[in-house]
Amino acid sequence: MLVIGIKDNKLDAAERGWIRAPQVSGVILFKRNFQSRDQVTELIADIRACRDEPLLVCVDQEGGPVQRFREGFTRLPPLARIGEVYLHDPQRALELAGEHAWLMASEMRAIDIDLSFAPVLDLARGNVVIGERAFHADPEIVSRLGLEYVRNLRLAGMAATLKHFPGHGSVREDTHLECAVDNRSLDEIRDTDLVPFADAIAAGAEAVMMGHVAYPAIDAAPAGYSRAWIGDILRGELGFRGVVFSDDISMAAAESAGGIGARIAAHRDAGCDIVLACKPEIVPEALAVCRDAGPCDNETIEALRGRIAPTWHDLIDNPQHTRFAARLTALENVPA
Fold this sequence. Notes:
This protein folds into 2 domains: 63-158 and 311-331, no CATH class; 166-305, TIM Barrel. Helices cover 40% and strands 14% of the residues. It has helices at residues 13-20, 37-49, 79-86, 90-110, 139-155, 186-190, 194-202, 227-237, 260-270, 283-289, 298-304, 312-317, 319-329; strands at residues 2-5, 24-29, 56-59, 61-63, 66-67, 115-116, 161-165, 207-210, 214-215, 219-222, 243-248, 274-277. Helix 2 links the parallel strand 2 and strand 3 (56-59). Helix 3 (79-86) packs antiparallel against helix 4 (90-110). It is globular and about 50 Å long.
């Protein structure tokens, strides 16, 4: 199954054909697909109208530096602001984590987005692309805030996607641009980066997104290509029974497996359920490679579909929305 990216803020004829392909399970939207709230709502309706079968519509609406839809939506602070609050007022930080999750998910569900890939459970330990997207460097703090985030996503009708398993925060490299290697032992990773993931999985998180980081003490292959990480540790040791997403196969660190077909095959062989092909220019090749893969598993897709969908008018009239938005936007140092 593939989740694919599209080029612009309207569908063209080729993209309608892509979405109708039986091997496509969803579409992921980016800033390039957004012009206004009305426009993106129409685009989502158009995407869904392309087929009768269940389809996921996804986005990264984390807040801070990674918020694809901005104008017309609450400007969400990065998770690091909540981690900073935790150091002097843990209870308020827990409340803010829950409010952040509920507000983000409620706004996305009101425009018929199923999944925002969240929360980030990586540790804030110097990675250049994770940065303030992470709650904190302390795994116990990340775990507590992450559990509250997951719980409130569900209250808003959205499944949780934990990322980037087994932890992207303790290496410096940006896997969008280069390969990243973490040379620590499994025991060291278990005691640090894995803690928030293990706790959220035990709490029933519905999905996990794999990282492209390699951990040679466990497996030479990056985690998303690794049966050891997905089969032995994620599904075996941690007992995860949900949906496993790859990270984007367009990223530089994904190239270690070879071409587009080899990357898809490596993810599938390792145990990924859904592969992300975010750049439109690689979608035709990805579809061709998957031509004989058979139709998507509707049960898997339904497990991730959004449950609650308020109208935008009803959401904005909800005093809880107003209260949460005011508290979150008041956090200091929200990036412009």
